[in-house]
Design brief:
There is one protein chain. The chain is of the alpha+beta class and 201 residues long. It has one domain: NADH Oxidase (3-Layer(aba) Sandwich), CATH 3.40.109.10. The protein has nine helices and five strands. Strands 1, 2, 3, 4 and 5 form a five-stranded antiparallel β-sheet that branches.
């Protein structure tokens, strides 16, 4: 697709077919997503990628609401997505990067993580997530970014992730179920002129 067409076509997919995503295609999408902007070229975002059924089952057990999981009518269409990607970031990597002498003129120079006015590790993780959503659309796949329901610690423990890891959510990727129909927006899209403020608010 042309890039503008990809942007217009992208939407959140909540119903997936249980068809596997080609491994080579997935590797390509992940590699490209990691080329997203990174503050200070820190490259502190890493991806937890789950494609094995057992690993995905562990993921849903760790972060899913038990009642939701039991009610197959509500959960099945999403749970059967064949790929789960969790963008993860390391605040320590950013602190270490901005402690180097070439960053001495930055307002972030040698600041501890809790003093950063903007947590760029989360910003970078969001860049990677957005790029991956667009790449999935371009590849003819569906994707959904979703919240971890406040169960990040359980996720870290389940997959033996470093304790300092910061997550922003997860992305389900797979073949959209055509029987679900086109997603209906919760509200009408606001026109750009309502959201773009030129020269003043």
């Amino acid at each position: 697709m042309e890039f503008q067409e990809v942007v217009r076509a992208r939407s959140m997919t909540r119903h997936f077919l249980p068809e596997a995503v080609d491994g080579a295609l997935l590797d390509q999408l992940l590699s490209l997503a990691l080329r997203s902007p990174s503050a200070g070229s820190t490259q502190g975002v890493e991806l937890l990628v789950l494609t094995l059924e057992s690993a995905r089952a562990s993921f849903w057990q760790a972060i899913g609401d038990p009642d939701w999981l039991v009610d197959g009518r509500r959960s099945r269409a999403l749970v059967q997505a064949p790929v789960i990607v969790v963008p993860c970031a390391s605040p320590n990597r950013y602190v270490e990067r901005y402690a180097r002498e070439d960053k001495h003129s930055s307002s972030l120079f040698r600041l501890p993580a809790d003093a950063w006015p903007v947590p760029y590790w989360s910003v970078d993780a969001a860049f990677v997530a957005m790029t991956l959503l667009l790449l999935a659309t371009d590849a003819g796949l569906g994707a959904l970014f979703f919240h971890l329901q406040g169960r990040e610690q359980r996720l870290l423990e389940t997959f033996a992730m470093p304790a300092e890891t910061v997550t922003i959510g997860a992305i389900a990727i797979g073949v959209p179920d055509p029987a679900s129909g086109a997603p209906r927006p919760v509200s009408s899209r606001r026109d750009a002129h309502e959201r773009v403020h030129r020269e003043h608010w």
